[in-house]
Queue: 3 jobs
Job 1
Amino acid sequence: MQDPRFSKEDIMDFDVKWETAKFDQHLAKDTTVRDGWKSVSVDISVPNGKEHASEVDAPVFSVPGLFYRPLIEVIKAAVQDIGDRCFHYTPFKQFWTPSPGSPPQRIYDQIYLSDAMVEAHTALQNQPREPNCTLERVILSMMFWSDSTHLASFGDASLWPLYLFFRNQSKWLRVKPRSNVCHHVAYFPKVCPFFFMSFSWCSLSKLISVAR
């Protein structure tokens, strides 16, 4: 508002509450972005200390508010990004010769240098191709991490995210926060207090340990 080009006449009809409500309505709609966030409820079969003929007969508790991003769309967005230049799609074996005449030593410092990746890549190349498909076939190795994250220095506000890393990228790149190679794919909700009220027959301390 201190800019000399600002004119108070431009905001004479501006209503903060009205504009904020419009933002809220927009955010409440389902996103059209393919790798955007979605919300679903998850039904969980909960043991109640009784024997049942089948798991489908066990009590079911619905946990709302699981936010997630479609995994296939996250993968597409990641490999199409400019950072894709750092992906290693062809695994290989790396050796080091300490001195002339000494036997070479195998180096294991990246996932894409491992026997598991090399063998998986070879097995994929040996499979019959899809009819009329000439695309390159590669192994995309993924690893997931999850742990509770505190949101503030004081208080107990927290989230429980699920992270995705691609092991086709160097570990030296993955450890750099500014490299932006960590993908958030889900946020796990906490079980509401009604859950514990519904299953009060169980020892509360034991129930809490498995109800995160």
Job 2
Amino acid sequence: IQSEKKYYLQHQIYYKNLRVLGLEYPDLDYSKALPFLLMLPQSLELNYL
């Protein structure tokens, strides 16, 4: 799956974006979720030559 491959290759960015939300589930700040959420559509972008 292309998205999983991108998350694997960019795992440092993946975890950085998750940490921005917060460390504990009850304290998550979903207003800061956009960078994490944008990782999926960015991983699906088509690269044409």
Job 3
Amino acid sequence: MAVVVSGGDVYVAGGWSSDRNVGVAGYWKNGVPVPMTDGTKSAFAESIVVSGSDVYVAGYELDGTGKAVPTYWKNGEALPLAGPTSGSGKLAPSPCREGCVCRRLDLRDR
């Protein structure tokens, strides 16, 4: 789970179980859940970055064989990533020059 505060709003990335006991990736904004997956495939959000009105979340979604596919979501739209056969994407702020918002995407085997 990851927490970030932006513009007075609190965002928490993570997930919860659907009625069918499938992991749903999402985040909470000021305590209100915002799902990013529909609960048909298990998924989990691991990190979050907010830049202006854009919300970037990274984590993974299980494919049909049960392997974790690194995935990031921009404003709720899933963008699967090429990477290890099994792994997790993690989005984290990175230091950069003044006046620019930079991000780093780490892939790691699970």
